[in-house]
Design goal:
By secondary structure, the chain is an alpha+beta fold. It contains eight helices and eleven strands.
Amino acid sequence: MFYRGRYPDGGDGREMGAKRQRLVDQGPSFYGTSTGSSFMYNPPPYGYVAQPPPFPVVRLRGLPFDCTETDVAEFFHGLDIVDVLFVHRGGKFSGEAFCVFGYPLQVDFALQKNRQNMGRRYVEVFRSKRQDYYKAIANEVSDAHGGSPRRNAPRAKSYDEGKDSAEHTGVLRLRGLPFSAGKDDIMDFFKDFMLSEDSIHITMNSEGRPTGEAFVEFASAEDSKAAMAKDRMTLGSRYIELFPSSMEEMEEAVTRGR
């Protein structure tokens, strides 16, 4: 693991990366040397007096299923990457990952990559927190050693639980569509539901090109909730993420692309 910088609460990125590697017995990391030699700005150590610097971690969503650490390193080319942690659910890659950097300031540079493409998929990049990264490590370690499902352990709502508890209004947002997908493809994807072309809205960017997202109006909130069973199923060669949405969000997205 490569690392520069230290955090005043006792743990640093180098130690965290090595500790995770030992726990899950995955062998040496891809990052044997610095990926940040071309990064033009290496800030001095943080001079915080009242509080420590924020932990430099981001969460990525929408990664290709065949994504590797090398792909993430190339996506964040020029930044000092300490660790990449891919998130699995039920033994399968979820399309999400955590990426830890050498300096807190590098998170700002990483966020500039939000909604840029990795291969044929655009990737969302969010700020994250130390505790979320630690929790993901704990889950990975437990899964790697055949741990219990932690049914009784108190935990925050997961991303999937947030979807399950969201209010349904009859509108779903689709993310990760092939850019060539048309309304017929989406109707076929939801072939168990009665849809018309008028109920499907493929969003465009300011240049008139598909964004990889669409909104679908179902006959009822019950239908849209039932359609969530198709979440992360494939259309062509790509898996599609589904999110409960609303008429307001749909209208705003459609208008933005006009």
